[in-house]
Amino acid sequence: MTRNDTDDYRALFLSGLPLMDVRAPVEFNKGAFPGAVNLPLMNDAERHEVGVCYKRDGPEAAVALGHRLVSGELKAERIAAWADFAASHPQGYLYCFRGGHRSRITQQWLAEAGIPYPRVVGGYKAMRGFLLQTLESAVAECGFTVLGGMTGTGKTDVLAQLAHALDLEGHAHHRGSSFGKRASAQPAQIDFENRLSIDVLRKRAAGHAGFVVEDESRLIGSCSLPLDLYQDMQRRPVVWLEDTLENRVRRIARDYVVDLCAEFTALHGEDPGFDLYARRLRQSLDNIKRRLGGERYARLAAIMDEALAEQRRGGGVDPHHGWIEALLTEYYDPMYAYQREQKSSRIVFAGDFAAVVAYLLDSSAATGSQASRLAV
Q1: Alpha-carbon Rg for the chain in angstroms
Q2: Is 261 annotated as catalytic?
Q3: Which of 2, 24, 136, 165: disulfide with 212, CB 3.0–4.6 Å?
Q4: Pick the catalytic residue: 96, 142, 223, 261?
């Protein structure tokens, strides 16, 4: 049975159906949807040439040029790639930027090859607009609770226990501090926003009327929180997570030493990966050199270098605890203590890991019951 074209963007994102993006690579790399596969009708150079022709000679000449550029063996290769995608993803859809000329040509060429395949009406632009509206509506309509706490208290671990949490750092692929950069690159800004919006859409569809988010600055690495969400977070109630200094040091060593080293070695091999990991750790400390001051930076850098040398020799990661504890007590904790004081009027609960998880689960259950009553 032939499936129809669709403009049901909500159903597309809730189901996670496969998507074939026929925009040029330069467009795709600026922003796309999770799991979408870029199989362009025209590559970047061809698109540029057609665009110049459009401005100079008009749309008919541009279309004619496009057909000349993508013809013969090149056309056959692209149709074959689309056909392979259609065969592997029979429930999918294709789209271009506005759901217009490029997606119609792709659809037509596939149909001529005996492969009917539906497209998304309105294309990328309409789907992107739907996701932006989804997030905007959530900020206006849903309850948000902000999870705060000193560095290393395990806020991300708390979020992992909650079905109604939005892991902003996870979507940004960054741990949110000067040391938070991962071994692989962050997503483009648009990709970050799209992932976050789809997460919100699916959680609201699952019945969640409120969300827990970690207290973040506007920037998570290179990804910027949507302004309306960030501003809204500054007014929401805060739950403060507490833990001992010893536990915090061990948790940071796990995340920023053990796990980061494993990421680099998995990507680059044992020795090259360790070298890149060590360089990243040193660079992260260098990034806050001015704020640390010369004497303190030199002291922490020396401890870090000794710890890296011991780790390379196979002596474990405990020597890293020295610079981590000093960085917490001398640098991060005073900043977070000040921030807590500034947020004191919004703090509605404070406790350790188990107590905070229990409180947030109870709050979610109450919000869900209220939402159910309102829906009746």
Answers
A1: 25
A2: no
A3: 165
A4: 96
